[in-house]
Amino acid sequence: MLDAFIIDEIKRREREAERRRDEKRPRPDPPPPPAPLEDDEPAKDRGVVIIDYSIEGYG
Is residue 44 left, alpha or beta, with left meaning phi > 0 and alpha meaning psi from -120 to 50? Predict the structure, then answer.
């Protein structure tokens, strides 16, 4: 029974040491968000296109 306790204790200490190493490791900064696209035309100058797919009377 003592052997299993010793093995578990060694594993626990190894996990704890690994966790501490991971906490000290520098993390890369996340990439910045993409810049908004700039249009040449203002939004108010854009038009609306209506496409009528009804083909009644065609052909």
Answer: alpha
User: Which of 14-23, 29-38, 42-51 comes out lowest in average pLDDT?
Assistant: 42-51
Q: Where are the domains of the chain?
A: 1-25
With a cut of 80, say whether residue 24 has pLDDT above it: yes
User: CA nearest 16: which of 8, 28, 5?
Assistant: 8
**Within 13 Å of residue 10, how many CA atoms lie on the same side as its CB?**
6
12 token code pair: 């626990």
- Spell 16-32 as b/e; 16+ CB within 10 A means b: eeeeeeeeeeeeeeeee
Cα distances (angstroms) measured from residue 15 to each of 1, 6, 12, 30, 58:
22, 14, 5, 27, 75
